[in-house]
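My current task is to audit a protein record that another person submitted. I need someone to confirm that the token line plausibly describes how this chain folds. Take the sequence as given and treat only the tokens as open to question. This is what I was given:
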Amino acid sequence: MSHLDSIGFNINSSEEFEALMAKVFEEGVEYKVDEGTYVVYTNESGAQIYAQLDTQGNFLGFMPFYDVQITKEVKLESFVENEDLSPLDMRYNARSQLETYPFVFDTVNGKTKRLEVKNQELAFVAFPTEIAYFETAEAFISAMPELSATYFIPVGIMTPEGTLTDSPEPYAMFIGEIKSIEKKTNSYSNQEFYVFELSALEGDVTVVASITSLSNVEPKVGAFINGVYWMGAKV
């Protein structure tokens, strides 16, 4: 499941990707930092692309996001070192506000503000790599009796054997009850996508998902969404 699909960018070829990036650099807003430049494109749906340029103007990469306004307090613990990250990427080890669970997340604009290792208010968006819908908590427990209806597992910090990994990734597996649902139309592609506010363990989480990822259901408030997510945040 593509993160771009989750916010309505239906990209199926290198030509379509190049056209999207041209749109980003034509209409995006620049934020210069010591390590380069973020170019932020936002369309009417709230779908966003954070493109990156180095100090010489060379393209480094991009991250998708959604223009969320809700913030969540977390406790930053350390910066994650990874040779695959660009000079504009910032990945953090963190703990939930009440320190119920650890997790890892990427920031889409991390170099615009030097975050200290302490409690921080950040805007999070979860992009699913796997997603499933359940009408009730009982339906979820029946399908997955080894889990609770309020669980959160930081799968990005563990190996398949369940031990801690040396290269933590920004992925988490959790369930949440649907508090609100919006169906947005990406004005670039004319593709629809969902924006969910989920009541999850230790607070609300914004989840974006393509319509096709839940094509067999009509989501309702009070139902449950379970999934594996890339965890992104805006500082």
Observations:
- Residues 72-234 form one domain.
- The two ends are 26 Å apart (CA to CA).
